[in-house]
Amino acid sequence: MRNLRPTGAAAALVACAAIAAVAANPSAPAHSASGSAAAEASVPANQPLRTLGALDNLRIGTAVNTDALASDAPYAQLVGQQFSTVTPENVMKWQVVEPTQGTYDWTAADTLVAYAPAHGQLVRGHTLVWHNQLPTWLTDGVANGTIDAAQLRDLLHKHITDEVTHFKGKIWQWDVVNEAFNDDGTPRQDIFTQLLGPDYIADAFRWAHQADPHALLFYNDYNIEGPGAKSDAVLALVTKLRSEGVPINGVGIQGHLGTQYGFWGADAVAANMARFTALGLDTAITEADVRSELPMDNPKTQAQAEGYSTLLQGCLLTRRCISFTVWGFSDKYQWVPGVFSGQGSAAIYDENFAPKPAYTAMQVDLATAASSRGEDEQ
Ligand code: XIL
After folding, report:
1. What is the pLDDT of residue 8?
2. 3-state secondary structure (DSSP) of residue 123
3. Most buried residue, 42, 162, 256, 268, by CB count within 10 Å?
4. Domains parsed from the chain with CATH numbers
5. pTM for the full model?
């Protein structure tokens, strides 16, 4: 059961939404025939993810490939139908928005930022500071010494200020700093750490907050779903940031899993998230996917469904876990095969947009959480 239960008017709204959803879905089982209050409160699972998520006060999101959104009608239809938040998969990254120093190109990102409110969606901004997908002029300049530490700091300040200002008022959550740690919890030795030292992280959050005081500002990383050296390092970082009054609102847990590795249980995910909640921070699953070594078989497909479930249930168990985003919803446009050799099939829909057991597992988890909330309120 989810702690973020609505009360009063909000609860009434949710109840109405549930009734409307059932009314709109004549194939839903007629639980009310049983006459039991708990049964009347149960929620049919065969509804879009965003509809079910709304019953749990949870936004369900996807990373969006903006080329596919423009050119592939079945893809675009599912983006609008299934998701209540969107993340640009690539088009807000520094490499894309400033390909030539001083010349911005916001075209693709602007398109998605306009698409979202027209479809009742919020936007996760991704990502302001990351060691990957940096413009060549920047990495070359640092490598050949024409960009020194003071200049890099000024360039980073300008990049964050200009990008957050450009989208001011239109971004729900920003991934301000992405992947600053190695798996053993040591700071990643990227150009920012090497030239600016560890304080660039606090500066990045301050600069983003100055540019858009209402956006929720997140630290985002992978392999921090459960306990371990890396999530301990992130916890130490955000504890320090909070104690220094740095404007950080949340921790994004990417959630790139693989069936060959196994997963933390939902209880461990929730316990780990609770460490961040205790600091007054929101949490979110920001990039869920569960890859496998190919070819697929039934046990891997089943394990994949379990992987998505552990992340989603961990989030549903956590007060202030405010969104659950999958990193691409269809294998037709999923990033895994291009990066992890011999692996794939990581998304909740296949390449023909047929939903997999992982999709159904998410529906069932969301409906179960909404149904048990109803029982709790009897
Ligand atoms: C990935 C995209 O999905 C790919 O299309 C791109 O080639 C590389 O980046 N962690 C992140 C994301 O924070 O931005 C990455 O996205 C996946 C890993």
Report:
1. 33
2. strand
3. 42
4. 49-367 (3.20.20.80)
5. 0.90
